[in-house]
């Protein structure tokens, strides 16, 4: 089967993947990405601040344009990622020292980046990873100069820039009960009570083999906010060495996560964080883990793919 097509048949919008010019350049990945297995792409790096506005007011859309062009020419959706994030942030932004300057810099960044492909982007991760794991706000130039209000500023600018895009807050480690998901749900409540334009919450879901039992409850909990929910960066990393048994467990885990989205009407779609294990971020970031995606290093379907497919039958 073709899993994005099957997601749509179930009333969801897509199964998606992270993608960018560096992975589109791999013929096998481009070929898989063009099929009905994937219906939405997220720029893995090309939409981030260091790529799009490396110097103040100097925008570069080379990579982002190429990603959007690949997607639209194949009839796929795009999830924009990401406008305001503490990481992959150019030094010139971190060096800003006053609230007024930072406010106008955020507004200009959001309006210029979102304006680029206005009307063509399904959803944007407007702010990313604002929380520490204990539920306190992460230190960043944004929080340090503007407090929580940086989130309001970003979302208001985003709504103005592209009124058709669904506006998401996105974070990781929301995969079970705890202070981080508590803080996210509470923040969304405050944003809504202040009239901040927000449409969705993304749970990245960078998961570890055999540790996916909290996902269904988390998606239900996030849905209680009334917002759309999306699984935005799914992978399930396997401790080395990878064996037939652990690949089988990964099949079960992907099946469980897929069913968790299917069970909640507000869950709009699932994006896995790459097509093939060959190019996953996990290799360099977690050297003792491997093989987190649906297609292996040789671009062949893994048991994990069957886990997704069978959830959709
Ligand atoms: O483009 C340069 C290349 O010119 C250079 O030769 C090479 C040498 O290291 O680095 C390349 O840049 C790397 C870039 O990925 C493109 O491959 C960066 O070093 C590397 O840091 C960057 O990693 C990305 C990471 O975000 C950075 O934070 C990963 O690809 C990307 O998958 C990852 O994605 C994040 C999400 O945006 C947010 N959630 C967590 C997720 C995983 O970390």
TrEMBL record:
Listed EC numbers: 3.2.1.8
Entry annotation: catalytic residues: 233
Entry keyword annotation includes Signal: yes
Keywords: Carbohydrate metabolism, Glycosidase, Hydrolase, Polysaccharide degradation, Signal
GH10 domain location: 23-311
SMART domains: Glyco_10
Catalytic activity: Endohydrolysis of (1->4)-beta-D-xylosidic linkages in xylans
Matching Pfam families: Glyco_hydro_10
Any one GO BP annotation for this protein: polysaccharide catabolic process
Gene Ontology molecular function, alphabetical: endo-1,4-beta-xylanase activity
Leading EC class: hydrolase
Family, per entry: Belongs to the glycosyl hydrolase 10 (cellulase F) family.
Official protein name in the record: Beta-xylanase
């Amino acid at each position: 089967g073709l899993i994005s097509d099957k997601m749509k048949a179930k009333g969801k919008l897509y199964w998606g993947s992270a993608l960018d010019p560096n992975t589109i350049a791999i013929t096998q990945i481009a070929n898989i990405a063009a099929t009905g297995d994937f219906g939405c792409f997220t720029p893995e790096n090309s939409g981030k601040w260091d790529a799009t506005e490396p110097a103040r007011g100097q925008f570069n859309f080379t990579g982002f344009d190429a990603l959007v062009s690949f997607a639209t020419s194949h009839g796929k959706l795009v999830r924009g990622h990401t406008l305001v994030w503490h990481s992959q942030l150019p030094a010139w932004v971190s060096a800003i020292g006053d609230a007024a300057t930072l406010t106008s810099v955020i507004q200009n960044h959001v309006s210029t980046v979102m304006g680029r492909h206005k009307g063509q982007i399904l959803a944007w991760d407007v702010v990313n990873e604002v929380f520490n794991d204990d539920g306190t706000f992460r230190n960043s130039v944004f929080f340090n100069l503007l407090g929580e209000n940086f989130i309001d500023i970003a979302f208001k600018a985003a709504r103005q820039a592209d009124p058709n895009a669904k506006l998401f807050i996105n974070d990781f480690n929301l995969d079970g009960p705890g202070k981080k998901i508590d803080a996210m749900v509470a923040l969304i409540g405050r944003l809504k009570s202040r009239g901040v334009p927000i449409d969705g919450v993304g749970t990245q879901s960078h998961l570890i083999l055999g540790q996916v039992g909290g996902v269904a409850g988390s998606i239900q909990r996030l849905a209680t906010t009334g917002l759309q929910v999306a699984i935005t960066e799914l992978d399930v990393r396997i401790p080395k060495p990878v064996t037939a048994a652990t690949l089988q467990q990964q099949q079960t885990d992907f099946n469980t996560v897929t069913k968790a989205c299917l069970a909640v009407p507000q869950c709009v779609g699932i994006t896995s964080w790459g097509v093939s294990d060959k190019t996953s971020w996990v290799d360099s970031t977690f050297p003792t883990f491997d093989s987190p995606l649906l297609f292996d290093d040789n671009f062949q379907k893994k048991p994990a793919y069957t886990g997704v497919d069978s959830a959709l039958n």
